[in-house]
User: What shape does this take?
Amino acid sequence: MLRGADVVCVVSGALRDWARSRGVDEERILLTPNGVDLARFHPAAKRADLLASLGIPTKRIIGFTGFMRDWHRLDVALEAFAAARLDRLDAALLIVGDGPALPGLRRKAKDLGIEAHVRFTGQVLHEAIADHVRLFDVALVTAINPYASPLKLFEYLASGVASVVVDQPNLREVLEADCARFVPEGDAKALAAALTGLLTDKSERRRIAEAGRALLLERDYTWDGNARRVVAAVAAVVAERGRARANPNNPSL
Assistant: This one.
């Protein structure tokens, strides 16, 4: 199917390379990362009622959203929080979502003695995610598949939240160096240092958040932008076929 398609859309360079390895010509591959709905995800004030419902006072909030599996390495976030004693910085960890890793994470938070400073929301409807993301002062992508284009990252960027992300090619290709803090996967010490630095430097948090949102807008990492790129790619194929029909003897077509 890939070799027979006129356009193959992929969300990361790793998937582009995979498609090429399956015999897809480079010129037929459209690389367009995932996106975000800017009408829903945008900077706004934290909702005091939501904070109250979660039992979080006016703290600095480190946040994560998503379906949680062990490979997301949120255990490292818990270890970093505990090791750096981020509660002393008036910080809380807000983990939004559900998944098979959740029970183990709850146990780990208790074993580390940070249970009082961690909130697990469980499943949250997607229409409520934006309000949760806007509660974050720092957002996390602690691990991701090497071929993925994580939705959460674009939602963080659009919401104007500074992010700490795992340092790997599929995230580097969508971010500039000044748009996030990069840390090695599984390195609790490095994560703790990055979080401590951002929690104690409001101006740096703001700078990274603004740079990230500006990049998202500049590169049009949106669903509308993706639609425009796909339509343009298909239109080019249609136009090429039209020229071929009009000039059946043209060897360039």
Notes: The chain has ten helices and eight strands. The longest strand covers residues 60-65. The two ends are 23 Å apart (CA to CA). The mean pLDDT is 95.
